[in-house]
């Protein structure tokens, strides 16, 4: 128990101050008496007025009145060493007498002094007497003979009742009920077999010790990374190129998609009617649980649509050479998704020509370009470079009548390829950059003009008729970007160019129809920092609606942004917290369904808004 300083000093035996051997005061006593003489007896100020003793001033500041009452009260307490019991009745009687005297002769004091007196009364009433060597406390009387654990449990119960009265538990339950838990990714689509990981053994072999206890030489690595070598040259049978080899239903899947990949007449809708209804239909686009499926096992590097309006087929290429096909409206789970493996490195571009809808062209980082013919059931090799060149293909686009292609390469070359020739080499190769290329795009209405973009931060315009294989010169260089460019594409009308780069900008250029110089039209600030594990954003034009393009976004909640290229504003942000929980880096509109969009993320899933 804590005791006041006054209680400890009451009735203590007086101690004599030390003196010298002859009885005279010591030097320290003389200094104290000399210093205190002026304060105890009073001293003169600079006007020769007598000052009151310092002790009385200090005491009056603390207790201006009732000092005698406090002295009488404290004298009744017994010290710890004496062990005598206090006489409570006498204390109460003396207090009552003092109060009676004050009532008869009230003392009028200033407000501050009255406040100080009340505080002093409160302090004096709070003083507890000492009983049998222990100070009495209200808590002792309240708890009685309870043990510490019982008191602690009682306090816990009281605290629980107090918090329950505040309604905190009910508010917590209401908050948990209002928060929606994110749904797990859909398991619909491609089935991936997970390899069983065995626990690591701590044996003598791992410690490189033989049974005799002799140290063994350094062993070979336990885990060897399989080298992704290029597949054999020539055509590959689709049955042998299934992602999951040994699947007994592989033939059924192949026959089902052979029936879907047939040449159909393309309908050309009136563009004026589509433009007038596009904005109203855009506001109605949504996604449901059935419009999400896992099509490829790894990160998506390319995505696209089959040009036929029905059936609705989306395809994607992933990081390790897998090409997946998804029949969106299929009710049969077994024939919903089919995947092939015609490459061994990332599939960077996939396209189906509108004049030959039974063919699927794909190029890859393994420096091969293949054509999947679903009528013949083979992946034929169209173009490749020697594996020793350490080159890779970025993208390709059809030139003129879909019989020739332009291919962009890591080495800075653009190759002109004719798919009708039996050889797998390029017809012409143009060295257009000393750094890596990212994209090549041909003007749809001026087939001799094409643009290239890459890590040199420039977009170059070229004329095929004036190309020189040794030292080609561009018609115009657009240097508005300051960092590496991810993509640059002509619009379907050929009057605009959209590009994105690592400088967090999307630029829209105006291409004059008269053949003049290309001018910068719109500059859009956009977060393009996708990082290492996401595919770079590539703005893609709407195939039928002019001045509209779509691009991914890093914003939360996750969304896909549809832009107006003329004004540089967002027309609609497509989002859904239940079914779209990741970044869709690649997004493409359907060529026959203006308000149908597919987006691909880094886990191999496709999301369809319609």
Describe this protein's structure.
- InterPro entries: WD40/YVTN_repeat-like_dom_sf, WD40_repeat_dom_sf, WD40_rpt, WD_repeat_DNA-damage-binding.
- It comes from Elysia crispata (lettuce slug).
- This is WD repeat-containing protein 76.
- The protein has 610 residues and is an alpha+beta fold.
- It is 21% helix and 25% strand.
- The chain is built from 11 helices and 31 strands.
- The strands form 8 sheets. Strands 3-12-11-10-9 form a 5-stranded antiparallel beta sheet, with no helix packed on it.
- The radius of gyration is 45 Å and the shape is globular.
- The two termini are 77 Å apart.
- Mean pLDDT is 79; it is low at 8-15, 37-42, 54-67, 72-92, 109-118 and 123-136.
Helix content: 10-25%
Mean pLDDT: 79
Give the oligomeric state of the chains in this entry, treating copies of one chain as homo and distinct chains as hetero. Answer: single chain
Number of continuous helical runs: 11
From the spread of the alpha carbons, the general shape counts as: globular
Largest sheet: 5 strands, antiparallel
Outline the low-pLDDT stretches: 8-15, 37-42, 54-67, 72-92, 109-118, 123-136
Q: Work out the number of β strands.
A: 31
Rounded to an integer in angstroms, the radius of gyration calculated over CA atoms is 45 Å
Structural class: alpha+beta
Distance between the termini: 77 Å
Strand sequence of the main sheet, in spatial order?
Answer: 3-12-11-10-9
Q: What is the strand content?
A: 25-35%
